[in-house]
Queue: 2 jobs
Job 1
Amino acid sequence: MRRLLLAVGFAALTGPGAAEQLVSQVSSEEVAITSSFAGQTLTLFGSIEPETGSEQKYVEGPYHVVVTVTGPLQKRVARKMTNQFGIWINTEQAVYEEFPSFYQVLSDSKLDTITNPIALAENAIPLDSPAIGKTAAPYPQSQLFRAELVKLMERKGQFKSNEQGVIFRSDTFYFAQVALPSDAPPGPYIAHTYLFKDGAIVAEKSNGFTVRKIGFERFLGIASRQQPLLYGLVCVALALFTGWLGGVVFKR
Amino acid sequence: MQVYLPIAELSMNLFFLVGIGGAVGFLSGLFGVGGGFLLTPLLIFSGVPSSVAVASVTGQVVAASTSGALSYYRRGQIDLHLSIYLVLASILGSFLGVWIFGVLRALGQLDLFISLGFLLLLGFVGTLMMTEAVRSILKRRAGIVVREKLPNQHNWFHGLPWRVRFKKSRLYISVVPVLLLGFCIGVVGALLGIGGGFILVPALVYLLRVPGNMVIGTSLLQVVAMMAATTILHAVTSQSVDILLAFCLMVGGTVGAQFGASAGKYLRGEQLRALLALLVLAVAIRFGISLVIPPSNPFSMAVMGAGGAI
């Protein structure tokens, strides 16, 4: 108890200088996938302000901002091929539960100049952070397969780190551009902003947005899940009709 | 022009899709096969998830074979009685095939099995067709009149129990080999996403001794019925049939098939068969090489379970 009081007292002494909050907004909270969807760029903009209720009038930097954007979670498996009897076969695998289908790390400068690796790892910020995805695989494999999985996701364009992705317009106003590719998985996304000062996190903020199919694409997606038999029958009817029409038009 | 495919969850160029549908349709019209064995690998290579590619191509094969089957039906060149036995057996087979498909996918051995299956099947059929075609080309060069094998010659398995009279094919044979053939085609078709026309046609000719004028029509009807059943089965079990992708391929495929069929009139039968054999062997070799050479990256990934949000 005494120690707690001491800590509170200490915080009160240094408090006024270290109370920031982030005010941020995503340019659109719903990304609509239409028939001509070819990817979209979202802007996350925000400013660093004194905490509400504090007597501070302004904040003092220098600040660094890191934004992570996480897409819907999936169960993903990484497999390794080895040569058996002259042919290449998948022999080893590791399954990751709750592995993000999309992950981007945006920052205003190099991550290792913003803070130390321990602080980054504790918050699971880097692409190959061991906290991303849960696996039942034993230790050396779990790390190796995760690293390979991350490389594969990077090659596919779904994982990306951009150390010039956050741009400061003034000392306290920043924005970050999140480029969603055309094959961005639909579902809930979270943009998490970390505010760093002298290598330590002083404020955090989460903004959510959703990627969803709309109109005809949404109708087809729902139909294939909820009425699979009818969907299959319609597909066959369409195929029979197209084939018949082709035969009639060309009078084969 | 980009078009978003709602089940594959990616955008592709509309003209590219109609284009490959048309190119494969041309070949299928030329050779009288469905073309699934070319289209499925092409789509996988273009980035479509393999389960979506296999399931959507089945829809395209239905369309590509329908116009052909209809014109043979009008000319009375389909043995409906024989087709019923083949179709029922192959639908049973496709249930087993779709089940094996799911088991192999869970084990992570689906790609290996697809490669091995294509290699063995296409290699075997391609070699048979090639030797037969080359032999008849050489005979024609030498001026020997090729006498077609009589359709009424019987094999030992024609005499098995449950003999049935197929009037149109002028056959009185046991239904056991017919049902077995249909069942095997069903399993292989569902597993590899192919109609199996290129296996069924030689099997009908050489094993069951079905007369030549009935073979193509009967085989086409069997492909239409079996692939229609497989499309529905894939739609229900894996929900991976992309109707927009299938439609783009269908449009290209039906148009291409018409041009292929008219181009086919300018080539002789054995030349056509030699060309088809070359094509089949090329695909087989392509799969063989992928099994033997070291992969550029030994690691691969896949999403498990049903898809996410809509």
Note: The longest helix of chain B spans residues 110-142.
Job 2
Amino acid sequence: MGGQAAGPIPTDQHDFAIWEKRVDALMVLCSIKGFFTVDGLRRALEDMGEEAFETMTYYERWMASVNQNLIEAGVYSIEELGQRMEEVAARGDTYGDAQDG
Amino acid sequence: MPHDHHDHHDHLSPSGHPFRDDNDTPLSYWQRMEIAVRELMIEKGHVSPEEIALQIDAMDARNPANGAAVVARAWTDAEFRTRLLEDASEASREMGFDIGPMRLIAVENTADVHNLIVCTLCSCYPRNLLGLPPDWYKTRAYRSRAVIEPRAVLREFGLDLADDVQLRVHDSTADMRYIVLPARPEGTDGMDEAALAALVTRDSMIGTGLPRVP
Amino acid sequence: MADLVRVKTMMPPGHVRTPAYLRGKTGVVERVLGPFGNPEKLAYMLEADKQPLYRVRFTMREIWGEAAENPEDTLDAEIYAHWLERV
């Protein structure tokens, strides 16, 4: 995107939520352990397209990319993921409630 | 057992702000995925909760003060400065910083040259030395404008470069990461490394600012 | 002696680390960085050939023309050998 027209640079800064730090940690650990490469992470991000940049936050995009790479690596299946996400949602409405007891 | 100090609501983040109280916010789709993926990875034996907690702590411990210490050493030790400019990874390790496999290049500001770092393709940043990048570094606006109108970008940050200073922009497109070695401010003779390091801001090591003056 | 190189103009899809704004531009080799795994292969978990990586310096004039914000300013980028041709 170098050289494209853009407006002023937003300077607001947020502190990272714990779930974002966990996404970051998962990303680092999984690449160290060889499940995917930094290049694969970037490639999955690029494949999400411009719209993802507009509608998703930085760590939401990273979570999507980490998952895409882990699926491709065969670490778990889409079905396993879908099933587990349903179970997580059933535990409660907040991030705190949704942690395993 | 998850590392439990992150669950205390009064725990302060390294920047001194409280963590967003996300334990009480409505669960989003991507948060559900994060929990699900983390649990699956742990259950399948690929990663442990302890490893995750340690990695979070390691990343939290990395912050611009590390880079500031490297800069202050370069300002006071001419031979270290030479080593830093030749191989910034080795020089950082020499000071005891665990930067992992990161390949770091230091680029030096002088009276005639000012450097600015950007990653237009994603948002690569020397995180293993400086910690996580600021949100603005990752914005579309910064990444697209820094390579075409860097002086306008700098003015937005309050830095007005003279016409006779050449601006060098570095787009970290591949395996290297970059840190700017700012010029030592006037009026700092006789200051020790710790005092000098306190002048070095994160933005001065990205190139969007200058060090503080004493 | 700095070598003159031109970035190839090809525009393939997929994961490439050569920014679009540099395609077809000519610069000088600022330093040779040595061989690195080809990201175009690594991104797809394919066995990666090692490609020499170069830091190439372009003037803003070269990239954006005479209307560049400051034509004498420069931009350095790391470009893989298979994206460069000698001038």
Note: Chain A touches chain B through 60 residues (CB under 8 Å).
